[in-house]
Amino acid sequence: MKANLDVLPLSSWIDTAGKPLIIAGPCSAETEEQVTETVTRIAKEGYAHVIRAGVWKPRTRPGSFEGMGEAALPWLAAVKKETGLPIAVEVATPQHVELALKYGIDILWIGARTTVNPFNVQDLADSLKGVDVPVLIKNPVNPDLALWVGAFERIAGAGIKKMAAIHRGFSNAQETKYRNSPMWQMAVELKTLFPQLPMIGDPSHMAGKRAYLYELAQRALDLNYDGLIIESHRNPDEAWSDASQQLTPEALGEMLRSLEIRKPSYGDDFQSELEQLRQKIDNIDRELLEVLAARMAVVEKLGEYKRENNVAVLQLDRWKQLHNNRADLGKRLNLYPELVEEMFKLIHMESIRKQTEVMNNQPA
After folding, report:
1. If we measure between CA atoms, which residue out of 298, 282, 307, 284 comes closest to residue 357?
2. Is the separation of the CB atoms in 96 and 69 below 8 Å?
3. Distance in angstroms (rounded) separating the CA atoms of residues 100 and 28
4. In 3-state terms, what secondary structure has residue 122?
5. How far apart are CA 200 and CA 10, in angstroms?
6. Is 76 in contact with 46 (CB distance < 8 Å)?
């Protein structure tokens, strides 16, 4: 995938004094009192560079809380004036953009449900032409890198140069401990395409539960993310949306202060040792590929045997057996279950492809 973006550095539009950008605030702006108290307490803690709050909340089914809409924007304008902190809100329609800018909102973000629809993103891009405002774009709900890239290209086409990505995880196909699977490799691929694009981690929407916020936030910083966007509420258990993943302003401050900020690069003293370790990894990767090639050679013979005996390629019982066996083996080898599962899904699909190819190539 070839792509190019003209993106300004994060430091050119927000001053974080060299620290990771922290965007904090309630999932939803519920009442003026709730917004004022939450933001005041966040500001008192001193860790936030930007305040976030949901004003328009896209929901799967009607009848649930969909945000206070325009009524909440004066509350945010008031806390901005009181604390001096810039405000960020999610927008999903050109009307949202118009209203947000009318009330002096400083930063806009495009949510996962909007990123997934190119028509909606293009509508937003058209409404942003001639506007100088930072735009953050969350990954689409499903793990589709092209959709994420396309959203940036559309917004960039409107002349927006102050952009950043928000990695909030992807919808789960099966039960996991996280609300949304991180799939870190997707964010790494995006960063590889656009090294200059700031990357912001959203542990709140990955986790879904307070218990997992620290580990996900730390993982994002370990991957040299430029910042975090985390939900905070004055009384999380009484929140009107996403109660289980929010922290009080004080608990969030305590968590943030416990995070380790890694060095983005290394000095000359580490160069030699790193090169040696990387050489070992290169050699092991070569061996892995050789083993994989040997496995596929056996798969090809298996396909020939199935063809000769007129046996179907897909054997569900065998796949279930392989899945469980490899998961147990991976566990004994101290490998992450998610890694083993995803790896063997790919290998199994490639095995099916290879056997199907063999089955349909009759010998002369």
Report:
1. 307
2. no
3. 15
4. helix
5. 11
6. no
